[in-house]
Write a structure and sequence with these properties.
single chain; 424 residues; alpha+beta; mitochondrion
């Protein structure tokens, strides 16, 4: 009966919580197993509807680091963009559940964070560490002070050291003349190989480019354009536009505007083939979303400038510059690269003289720009040196006939060689 009464009394006694009863801190250490702050699990965030997994590329913080709310702690690489993992609340990182280069899925637990105002505690924690490191320092200093006289006794042993250094020197000089073919080790000495796994973006690029070659009936037509008028136009107005709008006037905006005007006469260039089994429907569009190819360290990306038909040259240039900066900084989102009805790729910035770009499916054409080179050309029966550029239009022959593709490229050439036509 007595034991039964004690059990009933124990059940009736309310359990104390360390959050509401700070007096529990006075308990012996063996009973203090309850954390002061709550823990929170950090999960892989939602990335996009079409992306369910990625590779945890790097941890930006280490275990024990204090992070603020929304501070980036890790980067997940997907086949399209890099996704940042941010801290949901301020706290201290306590545990990582995955390692770098591991594959993670949306909603997966990747880290544990201890919530609370850890900066003050963080300031107290390193202090004992410094004390601990300071304690062995004098201990090490004492043995270092004891062998000092021994080092003085070993001073006579110092002269043989330079003697040893002198002895290997002559054989080295003798070995050099003994090897007359000096070029052979330089050319054949390094035969190492390194195998690096392709990142997700590069794998996705390879997959899409091969898909384009296997799907589209790609054909490329070439032409050359005299850049004199456009270069004079840019030289005359670039300083004024930069001072007024803060935008650096380039050539991409002029080519984008020329393509939009040429599409009014040949709208099929802005169309695409959609449907099952390779497609059975042609989709025509009244808007123009131009994908601008931008080269980054991880691979080629194509952010989209939307509704180019409604923008002037300054607006187009500003939008292209903003997208290029976001691409180089790794800040592009899925929305920035979704869609696109036509692509312009400027390989000329890298010095390419001529090339055949690959269609970015499901688009039907891509315009390739190349380097500007001074070449002798016939002008009004005379030979003159002009800045010339080769243009390349790769198009899907399933949708565009050769006549339409050539006419489109010629119209772009005419607009560039006389930019005043774009105002008519």
């Amino acid at each position: 009966m007595l034991s039964r009464g004690l059990r009933m009394a124990a059940r009736a006694t309310p359990r104390l919580s360390p959050y509401t009863h700070p007096s529990l801190r006075q308990l012996p250490l063996q009973f203090q197993h309850v954390r002061t702050y709550a823990d929170k699990i950090i999960k892989v965030p939602q990335m996009a509807e079409s992306i369910s997994e990625g590779t945890l590329k790097q941890w930006n913080k280490q275990i024990g680091d204090y992070v603020e709310q929304d501070e980036e702690i890790a980067t997940i690489e997907t086949d399209k963009i890099d996704v940042a993992v941010n801290a949901p609340e301020a706290g201290t990182l306590k545990e990582f559940f995955v390692n770098e280069e591991d594959t993670v899925t949306v909603g997966q637990d990747i880290a544990r964070i201890e919530l609370g105002g850890a900066p003050s505690e963080g300031g107290d924690k390193p202090a004992p560490k410094e004390d601990a490191s300071a304690k062995p320092a004098p201990a090490k200093a004492e043995p270092e002070s004891t062998p000092e006289p021994k080092q003085e006794e070993k001073k006579p042993a110092a002269p043989p050291a330079p003697a040893k250094q002198e002895t290997p020197a002559p054989p080295k000089t003798e070995s050099k003349p003994s090897q007359p073919p000096k070029d052979i080790p330089a050319t054949l000495g390094n035969r190492e190989e390194r195998r690096v796994k392709m990142n997700r973006m590069r794998l996705r690029i390879a997959e899409r480019l091969k898909q384009s070659q296997n799907t589209a009936a790609s054909l490329t037509t070439f032409n050359e354009v005299d850049m004199s008028a456009l270069m004079d136009f840019r030289k005359k107005y670039k300083d004024e536009i930069l001072k007024k709008t803060g935008v650096k006037l380039g050539f991409m905006s002029a080519f984008s505007q020329a393509c939009v005007l040429a599409m009014r006469d040949i709208p099929v260039v802005n169309a695409s083939i959609e449907g099952p089994n390779g497609g059975d429907t042609i989709v025509y569009r009244d808007y123009v979303d131009i994908s601008v190819a931008v080269a980054t360290e991880k691979g080629l990306v194509t952010p989209v400038v939307r509704n180019v038909e409604a923008l002037d040259m300054v607006g187009i240039e500003k939008a292209i510059a903003d997208m290029g900066k976001k691409a180089r900084d790794g800040k592009l989102t899925i929305e920035d690269m979704a869609g696109g009805t036509f692509t312009i790729s400027n390989g000329g910035v890298f010095g390419s003289l001529m090339g055949t770009p690959i269609i970015n499916l499901p688009q039907s054409a891509v315009l390739g720009l190349h380097a500007i080179k001074e070449r002798p050309v016939a002008v009004d029966g005379k030979v003159e040196i002009r800045p010339m550029m080769y243009l390349a239009l790769t198009y899907d022959h399933r949708l565009l006939d050769g006549r339409e593709a050539v006419q489109f490229l010629i119209k772009v050439k005419e607009y560039i060689e006389d930019p005043r036509k774009m105002l008519l």
